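Lab notebook page, bench 4
Experiment: in silico fold of construct C2
Operator: M.H.
Input chain length: 146 residues
Purpose: comparison with the prior construct
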Amino acid sequence: MDSLRVMLNEAPIFVSTDEAEKLSLIRRAFATVGFSNPIKVLSPREAHEYFAGPGRKKAKAAGNFPLLCFIDHTAKDSGKELMRKIRQHSLFHSLPLVFVGASEREMREASHGTTCWQRPANLQDWVERLMPLRKILSRMEERLAA
């Protein structure tokens, strides 16, 4: 049980984005909500390599399997292709994914087994989206402590 509690607090949260300027906003939002997990930033290319290529072996290593994965790619179909690759591999099949999209159509097309969000515009939007995830993890931590 203690190892699961440690995982909830220390497993990395992956953020795959092709817009580096978003990263400080995303990091501030996670900190504001109370996530203490390290945030590992992956470019779209790095994310494809991690989830569909040689990175699979790294994923099995202790402390390297993500708690959550956020995919925010502006390049057409890049994020959807990555989600397809993630869901095809049994190691990542149940990994919680959040696809951040710009349009309703884009989110509808990507929604198979994935949480889809309209792209948050500012810190408050990110905080509002992250708060329910933080509450779920807090409840899990409480149950583990009991």
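Observations: The helical segments are 2-10, 23-33, 44-52, 55-60, 78-88, 104-110, 123-145. Residues 2-145 form a domain with the Rossmann fold fold (CATH 3.40.50.2300).
Next step: discuss at group meeting.
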